[in-house]
Amino acid sequence: MAKTWLIVTLVLLGAAACARAADAPAPADWPQFRGPGGLGASAAPGLPLEWSPDRNLVWKVDLPGAGASSPIALGGRIYITCYSGYGVPDKPGDMAALRRHVVCLAAADGKVLWKADVPARLAEQPTTREDHGYASSTPAADADCVYVFFGKSGVFAFDQDGREVWRADVGSGLSGWGSAASPVLCGDLLVVNASVESESLVALDKRTGKEAWRAGGIKEAWNTPLLVPVEGGKTELVLAIHGKILAFAPATGDALWSCDTDIGWYMAPSLVAHAGVVYCIGGRSGGSLAVRAGGRGDVTASRRLWKGRKGSNVSSPVYHEGRLYFADDATGTVSCLDARTGEAVYEAHLAPEPGQIYASALLADGRLYYVARQGGAFVVAAGPQFRQLAYNRLDDRAVFDASPAVAGGRLLLRSTRVLYCLGEKQKSK
Questions:
Q1: Which one, of 366, 315, 374, 326, lies nearest residue 348 by Cα?
Q2: Does residue 8 have a pLDDT over 90?
Q3: How many CB atoms neighbour CB 165 within 10 A?
Q4: Dihedral sign computed on CA atoms, order 42, 47, 48, 54
Q5: Which residues contact 387 (CB under 8 A, 6 or more apart)?
Q6: Domain that residue 393 falls in
Q7: Terminal C-alpha separation, the chain
Q8: What is the CATH number of the domain that holds 194?
Q9: Does residue 98 sit within a domain?
Q10: Contacts of 294 (CB under 8 A, 6+ apart)
Q11: Measuring CA to CA, how many Å separate 103 from each of 23, 99, 113, 147, 226?
């Protein structure tokens, strides 16, 4: 009986820790993919509206390799990953020379504080489609460690001085698109979507790397898991797979509910949530839906609130004041949906023509930031009428696949090889 009560107590403590983890950290921090809570929204005021190589560029740093992962920020430090030695655009190299790099920089000036190198577990994917490469998963960080996921090469924890604390194996599967889902922290657990590597959702003890639980059936899912607070002070862990949204108990991995999406093909965009409602877009054929969290079993008929046809194949949405915003990855359009009904509020073309958009939208200070692959960045007013406020460029040659981030009131943009820090500067008289 005592052992049973101990297990129950640990589960409850784990659930409470996950609930605390969903709370917003300090405004200066951006500790995981898409920032606090994974929602793509920042409370920081005063991000720049306009920038160029000669305007509002605080610093830029050439990275020691290529990559598509997004930067994160915690406690005045920035963490980012990249790779070198093989498969770098225009430099095929030798697979045996493939290395991943975890880079820590000072947020104030971009100075590199440390770099940790990780050899690849071979054989790796010989190529990745559209040169996405071998460093596409965004790190997560807390006061103790920075946690990174490098596909079949494993999950790694490094301390604040760049020393490896542990590594864990979550599978050896490969995909032509590579590996891209980012890890998320939930109390004392680190949760990894290892759909490519083992068709599993895996929770690791963040202190030791030992496996705490594993849930199977995670197929065709490149999105990052999301923690959703629900009624009663509880938290659910949700992600989208081919055809369904799945919810799990974060502390134990127990399946809670599922909802049909009626979206065909793989799922790349991450979910967002507000007030206990989960919003999903995705699929090459498009599609969107809303489902109220907190159910049990198949909730398609009972808790799916609406279903729509408009979606995006790659970039993730943001929620703001009753509306859902996202960019189409291929058409150069941005959409706004009524979050209550799924009906279109507007669909508009960005100007000039942006080309592909893989980065997820960022919401900050009543503005939406959309970053196109070929370097153009668009600032749009968040509201029921489409109003483009600015168009900015940094480098005509670079590719921008990473999503924007915020560090200490500044905007971080990452191209394949360069990290940029942007902030408002006083105009000279």
A1: 326
A2: no
A3: 16
A4: negative
A5: 380, 381
A6: 2-422
A7: 76
A8: 2.130.10.10
A9: yes
A10: 230, 231, 234, 236, 276, 303
A11: 26, 13, 8, 12, 25
Tell me which DSSP letter residue 7 carries.
H
Which amino acid is present at 221?
A: A
In this structure, what are the phi and psi dihedrals at residue 201, rounded to the nearest 5 degrees?
Answer: -105, 120
Closest CA to 380 of 409, 406, 351, 358: 351
pLDDT digits (tens, 9 = 90+) for 95-122: 999 999 999 999 999 999 999 999 999 9
Q: Is 196 left (phi over 0), alpha (psi -120 to 50) or beta?
A: alpha
Cα separation of 16 and 227, whole Å? Answer: 12
Element spanning 279, H or E: strand 277-281
Q: Which amino acid is at 265?
A: W
Across the beta sheet with 244-248, what order do the strands follow?
226-230, 234-241, 244-248, 255-260, 297-298
H helices within 290-424, ranges in order?
A: 300-303
The whole model's pTM is what?
0.93
- Residue 291 forms part of a structural domain: yes
Q: pLDDT digit string (tens) for 137-165? A: 999 999 999 999 999 999 999 999 999 99
Whether residue 261 contacts residue 309, with contact meaning beta carbons closer than 8 Å, is answered with no
pLDDT score at 26: 62
The pLDDT mean for the chain works out to 92
The reply to whether 427 falls in a domain is no
Nearest-angstrom CA–CA distance, 225 and 246:
10
Coil vs helix vs strand at 272: strand
